[in-house]
TrEMBL record:
Known pathway: Amine and polyamine biosynthesis; ectoine biosynthesis; L-ectoine from L-aspartate 4-semialdehyde: step 1/3
One GO molecular-function entry: diaminobutyrate-2-oxoglutarate transaminase activity
Source lineage: Bacteria, Bacillati, Actinomycetota, Actinomycetes, Streptosporangiales
Annotated protein name in UniProt: Diaminobutyrate--2-oxoglutarate transaminase
Entry similarity comment: Belongs to the class-III pyridoxal-phosphate-dependent aminotransferase family.
Length: 421
């Protein structure tokens, strides 16, 4: 590992918890250079919903590259982009009654968020964006301004303004009904809250601790936005593309956001790709007003189309995801019940789940124990208090059972072990 410590920046993080040299991957398993396999409940932080090196997507990609097809195009018209757009409209947008324009803002989720914030401010002529406690929207400056995590915000090095933070659903343990606080600030001319341009929200806060917004809370937020002429932005970067069951995580709430951000698993293969979707009447961009060199990565268009064709022309995947999510929830509830005296609880929706370990450092130690037993997981939450599960949606039931048993063993090893002084 000397090469990495000698040359790579100290900013690296995941490798510190997984100190091996990874070499190959297939489906829900990753292998290190010695050939040892690890069951993957991390899935590229949600970028690999269809697993590693999905054979159908890989075959399409290899054929594409072998034919000397376009790889880089900025925003020029290409066959791969045309096929993605037409398939996305046919398979995702039209069946859901969504008349969105599609913007390719750059390769990463934070690019999609920056485009959404910029567009909302341009359309409304206002600057302030409402975000929520424990939110995470990216690491560029605009996205950081609407992110709650103090450690990530502290890395900006400059003031982060033009945003106002409100309580996420159940942040006040149910003591503040609906949107009483936000509504009162909007109504009170003495509140000090500038008239917002938009509200940005995650339906499930992945990095923030797998905090789930109820359908009623999301509907109330959408109603409030309409009442006060605020654009509603749903950040579906980690929870979209089927992570909670439906293609979009907001579908179960029955809301239609004005703007939606997608990235992570939209390419289907872990290739960089991001989308900003918005109502047709909001498309007020001037040509080239928001651009980027790598917003035309055609291999990602190709694998994204293959993923839509393979998994979203029927409801099989979303039904399987719901069933697997119920299985994960049942097993996590059993783990929590076994350690109820230690205050262990569970959270989540679909195949985005978390085990909350309130003891200081316990979730980190659980993930370390899981790694030693052959399971890859990460922590989340403001104090890294949640052991987070994001297995590929294609993970088999047998693999889920295997990983959840490893997790149960890891929790027993940590919660019942003597705590360090």
């Amino acid at each position: 590992m000397d090469t990495f410590s000698r040359l790579e920046s100290e900013v690296r993080s995941y490798c510190r918890g997984w100190p091996v040299l990874f070499d190959k991957a297939r489906g829900s398993r990753v292998y290190d250079s010695s050939g040892r396999g690890y069951l993957d409940f991390f899935a590229g932080a949600g970028s690999l919903n269809y697993g590693h090196n999905n054979p159908r997507l890989k075959a399409a990609l290899l054929d594409y590259l072998d034919g000397d097809a376009i790889v880089h195009s900025l925003d020029a018209h290409t066959v791969a982009k045309r096929d993605f757009l037409s398939t996305f409209e046919e398979v995702v947008l039209k069946p859901r009654g969504l008349d969105y324009k599609v913007q390719f803002p750059g390769p990463a989720g934070t690019n999609a968020v920056e485009a959404a914030l910029k567009l909302a401010r341009k359309v409304s002529g206002r600057e302030t964006v409402i975000n929520f406690t424990n939110s995470f929207h990216g690491m560029t400056l605009g996205a950081l301004a609407v992110t709650g995590n103090s450690v990530k915000r502290g890395g900006a090095g400059v003031p982060l303004g033009h945003a106002a933070t409100m309580p996420f659903d159940n942040y006040m343990d149910g003591r503040t009904p609906d949107f009483l606080w936000l509504r009162s600030l909007l109504e009170d001319s003495g509140s000090g809250l500038d008239r917002p341009a938009a509200v940005i929200v995650e339906t499930v806060q992945g990095e923030g601790g797998v905090n789930v917004a109820s359908a009623g809370w999301l509907r109330g937020l959408a109603d409030l936005c309409r009442e006060y002429d605020l654009l509603l932005i749903v950040d579906d970067i980690q929870m979209g593309c089927g992570r909670t069951g439906p293609f979009f995580s907001f579908e179960e709430a029955g809301i239609v956001p004005d703007i939606v951000t997608l990235s992570k698993s939209i390419s289907g293969y872990g290739l960089p790709m991001a989308l900003t979707l918005f109502r047709r009447d909001l498309d007020v961009w001037e040509p080239g007003e928001h651009n980027g060199t790598f917003r035309g990565f055609n291999p990602a268009f190709l694998t994204a189309t293959a993923a839509l064709d393979t998994y979203w022309r029927d409801e099989n995947l979303q039904n399987e995801t719901r069933a697997k999510g119920d299985l994960i929830a049942e097993r996590l509830d059993a783990i929590a019940a076994e350690h109820a005296e230690a205050g262990v609880t569970t959270r989540g929706r679909g195949m985005a789940r978390g085990l909350v370990l309130p003891g200081r450092g316990e979730a980190t130690r659980v993930c370390a124990e899981a790694f030693e037993r052959g399971l890859l997981m990460e922590t989340s939450g403001p104090e890294d208090e949640v052991a987070k599960l994001l297995p590929p949606l294609t993970t088999s039931v047998a693999e889920l059972e295997e990983g959840l048993e490893i997790l149960a063993e890891s929790v027993r090893a940590v919660v019942r072990a003597p705590q360090p002084a």
